[in-house]
Design a protein that fits this description.
four-stranded parallel beta sheet; globular; alpha/beta; Rossmann fold
């Protein structure tokens, strides 16, 4: 399934004030981080090469530049956008910016799927949907 596919995982960095409804659904910041790490390990155990690219909203201009540089240097077989980028209404504009940067900068735009997980422990599930 994985054939050593190179995956870019884009998500929010920690230290965010999580809304109560998200804490109730996904857990504390520490629990979310543990779930992400465990699911990345699961994906890597299945042969995927995962690059985690985390966005700190306070430094988003620099991180967008960093993302542009990364996409120019490395070929990715898929780009996955974390649920936090989509579930926080305050980050809608950031999410749109990241999608548009990826759309413009991926090395094979017609062959590089964009994936979306449903939470911190569904990275591998999203990869299975794309590459089963």
């Amino acid at each position: 399934m994985s054939a050593n596919r190179n995956i870019l995982l884009i998500g929010l960095a920690g230290n965010l004030e999580e809304p109560d409804y998200l804490k109730g659904r996904y857990g504390s910041e520490a629990e979310v981080t543990a779930k992400i790490r465990a699911d990345i390990a699961r994906a890597e155990g299945a042969g995927f090469r995962c690059t985690a690219f985390r966005i700190e909203p306070a430094a988003q201009a620099q991180r967008v530049q960093d993302l542009e540089a990364l996409l120019g240097q490395e070929k990715f077989d898929a780009v996955m956008f974390g649920a936090g980028l989509r579930f926080y209404p305050a980050y809608s504009a950031l999410f749109e910016t990241l999608v548009n940067v990826c759309r413009r900068r991926v090395q094979q735009p017609d062959a590089t799927p964009f994936l979306f997980n449903n939470g911190p422990d569904t990275i591998f599930e999203g990869l299975q949907r794309a590459f089963a």
